[in-house]
Specification:
The chain is mostly helical. The protein contains 16 helices and no strands.
């Protein structure tokens, strides 16, 4: 079927880039906070680094799950904007997302404060467990603030105005740097708090982001209109159900991916400390470059969702294809950097010659999977715009675990390829996910276009 788009293909690509760049920068700023935590706690003491890192491993997958659930409001918001719904009804989506997020965050606060009881099962000693408890007791109080920030970041992405989110993310990063330096090490007259100081810094940064984004929303006339009417706060069970129906599968998709990489890292330890260190560095680099296609995927969701709301289904498919094109271009750039400068990148992280050699080789694999990773997350973004998340969730489960992890273990342990075999398995798993999401996009978009043709006929 020949596409006759109302808007040229390059214009759609440009729109995705324009919306996506601030979101990408915000994602990079957010992940930089984790990098700052690692550097500052690592320079304080090995025990503090172990406590903070282990604590984050226990809570981050659940935070990511909650973020995915409440971020479903972005797709709904984009469709409402495209459909020309009133500002009040659009703001109501964020209100409902916030209610769901706060309920989840209360449960997560309780879990975070009690989660250190699991650390002895992983071999952690009492001194590290005590530090982890102190960190999480402070960190937990910031979780509602984190939820508020995510909800409004999704709102601004949904209405294609993500610049504010980028600015607030910069404020949070600066707060994280200054707070860690002040509270971990005891500067400017504050007591030296170590791990607990890192936890309070995260809380302060979260609430700084939440309060700032609320103030900016309330002080700007254009954005205040979405929440100024009392009817924006009227609760609808159907809207709560819609957000949960769309967001919960996305949350589980995140869990499947996060746990796959967690198990992947644990299994790497069987090949020795040098290999584990090299693999962790390569994964760290890959997680940074992943922020680019991830940020673009949110822009793709907004673009596709907007056209779906307008019932311009051919244009929605064109927006999806443009999203793939932009993601491919960015992934090829990232892959080139990782492959061509692998030894230089490795040397930034360590001076150990053995670790540099291992890392350089694994960065080639990390470069190779840039394309697959970009395509699969772009596919997820497209399908979110169609409000289609259940089948992609099942596709991720099959791709990550039945294919990727299974092949990785077989190649790494049974066939003796060790770390390279594990990475090959992950690459294949991500590639399968990319293919399945692409096929799903083709099926869903064709179905909507056929519906449009039947109605016009």
């Amino acid at each position: 079927m020949t596409l006759l788009p109302e808007t040229p293909f390059l214009t759609e690509c440009s729109r995705i880039v324009r919306i996506g760049i601030p979101i990408v920068i915000a994602q990079l700023l957010n992940i930089s906070m984790g990098f700052v935590d690692t550097v500052m706690t690592g320079n304080y003491s090995a025990e503090t680094l172990a406590a903070v890192s282990s604590s984050q491993h226990m809570v981050m997958p659940l935070i990511m799950f909650i973020a995915a659930v409440i971020s479903a409001g972005q797709a709904i918001t984009a469709q409402y904007v495209g459909a020309g719904r009133t500002k009040t009804s659009i703001g109501r989506v964020s209100v409902h997302s916030l209610l769901i997020g706060i309920c989840f965050s209360i449960l997560l606060v309780v879990y975070a404060r009690f989660s250190p009881i699991f650390l002895p099962f992983f071999g952690f000693k009492p001194p590290v467990i005590n530090l982890a408890q102190a960190y999480l007791n402070a960190f937990a109080w910031g979780l509602p603030g984190t939820v508020i920030f995510i909800v409004f970041a999704s709102f601004f992405a949904g209405i294609a105005r993500p610049m504010l989110t980028m600015a607030v993310s910069l404020i949070m990063l600066l707060m994280n740097i200054v707070g860690n330096y002040t509270l971990i090490y005891g500067r400017f007259g504050f007591p030296e708090m170590g791990a607990e100081g890192a936890g309070w810094t995260s809380t302060l940064a979260a609430w700084a982001g939440a309060v700032t984004i609320l103030i900016l929303t309330a002080s700007h006339k254009e954005f205040r209109k979405y929440f100024s009417q009392k009817s924006a706060y009227r609760l609808y069970r159907s809207l709560i159900g819609q957000i949960l129906k769309l967001g919960t599968p996305s949350g589980f998709s995140i869990i499947f991916e996060a746990t796959m990489f967690a198990v992947f890292s644990l299994l790497m330890g069987r090949f020795g400390v040098i290999v584990l260190s090299g693999s962790q560095i390569a994964l760290s680099c890959a997680s940074i470059t992943f922020m680019i296609p991830l940020g673009l995927s949110f822009a793709i969701t907004t673009n596709v969702g907007f056209y779906m709301g307008q019932r311009r289904y051919r244009q929605a498919r064109l927006a999806g294809l443009a999203g793939y094109a932009v993601s491919i271009g960015c992934s090829l750039f990232s892959a080139s950097i990782l492959i061509l400068f692998n030894r230089q990148i490795a040397a930034v992280y360590t001076q150990n010659a053995e670790v540099i050699a291992i890392t350089a080789g694994l960065l080639v694999f990390a470069g190779i999977f840039q394309l697959s990773d970009a395509l699969q997350v772009a596919g997820m973004g497209i399908l979110r715009g169609y409000k289609d998340t259940r089948i992609p969730m099942l596709s991720n489960l099959v791709s990550y675990w039945a294919v990727g992890m299974t092949l990785g273990v077989l190649l790494g342990f049974r066939f003796g390829l060790q770390a390279e075999g594990m990475w090959i398995g992950i690459i294949i798993g991500l590639s399968v996910a990319a293919i399945l999401h692409g096929l799903r996009f083709k099926s869903v978009s064709n179905r909507w276009i056929q519906r449009e043709s039947s109605l016009s006929g």
